[in-house]
Design brief:
Strand order of the largest sheet: 13-12-15-19-17-18
Number of helices: 6
Bound molecules: copper (II) ion
Low-confidence stretches: 1-9, 15-42
Radius of gyration: 22 Å
Largest sheet: 6 strands, mixed
Helix content: 10-25%
CATH architecture of one domain: Sandwich
Strand content: 25-35%
Structural class: alpha+beta
Oligomer: single chain
CATH class of one domain: Mainly Beta
CATH topology of one domain: Immunoglobulin-like
Number of strands: 21
Distance between the termini: 65 Å
CATH superfamily of one domain: Cupredoxins -  blue copper proteins
Amino acid sequence: MRSILLKREKTMSEQYNMTRRTMLASSAFVGALAPMLTATPTLAENAAANAKASPVDISKLPREKIELVKPPFVHKHTQKAQGGPKIIEVTLTIQEKKIVVDDNGAEVHAMTFDGSVPGPMIVVHQDDYVELTLVNPPTNTLQHNIDFHSATGALGGGGLTIVNPGEKTVLRFKATKAGVFVYHCAPPGMVPWHVTSGMNGAIMVLPREGLTDGHGKELTYDRVYYVGEQDFYVPKDENGEYKKYKTAGDAYPDVLEVMRTLTPSHIVFNGAVGALTGENALKAAVGERVLIVHSQANRDTRPHLIGGHGDYVWATGKFRNPPDVDQETWFIPGGTAGAALYTFEQPGIYAYVNHNLIEAFELGAAAHFTVTGDWNSDLMTSVVAPTGT
Ligand SMILES: [Cu+2]
């Protein structure tokens, strides 16, 4: 028994790495994941074969090009679909870049879609086709791809989109399920490293008729914000200072060691501690209906709006389910995006947090809403101001 306990099983990453090396050496390989790994190119081949065998004539569908914007903002879109399904063209350019993730200068060699953590949110309607151009510029050093949780087949597109530096690829998938979904990089052997280096984002697939409460009532929003929660694993030196590295590759062995503790050094909203607080606070006005989309590609989270509520909440983000109403805190499992709709009723500064309060206040998972408007004394009033007894 003891020897079994001491003999650590190979991790998924190690098996992937071993298999990749073995595959490169063109020799036979063993391991529990071997069938899955050999299946990857087969999946890609199957997808290509199926596409040839039963072509879908979408040549007459209108095309629309979307210019993505940096989170927490979301590109212009209509809440109800106008006309029939379209082919929505979008481009994501992968950027490997060093970012600073807190006020003390802790650095992460981030991997990003379009330069931001999280990547931009894409909005389409159910049954639209998403035609994504994924660009890996020659200035990058690593192989990447993209797995859309909203897509069907070929590892969410991951099996068809592996791009080396200097390459690009175009993937088209049909958005058949309505909801908010995570997308993330998932290159063989390095999935969690890329995801926890910032390489994730979200897509919102709206029902063609827009959002409803599940009982026939239309739900619309005046503003939408995209909050991407990110756990980082920055190694420390013997003095407890965050270590700095020249490249992502240099950092990898130490980062992997921290990752295996499952103890993040930072848990932040939109790439850094304070990225959505103070001057960068999200804005709203009393009476405005605000949709907050919140994704976490790797770890569970529990959003809470201090002093407010989730009027309508799709905690796991899928719009064919009726939303929960009047929520205080909602649970979003790792690898999921959720959505909450709230009409602000009081002015002031609200903190929007991960209500593991240690993660919010000590590690960074907090944002602010600055809300303008008139105070409603019926909802709350100070009867006796704090005073000496
Ligand atoms: Cu990647």
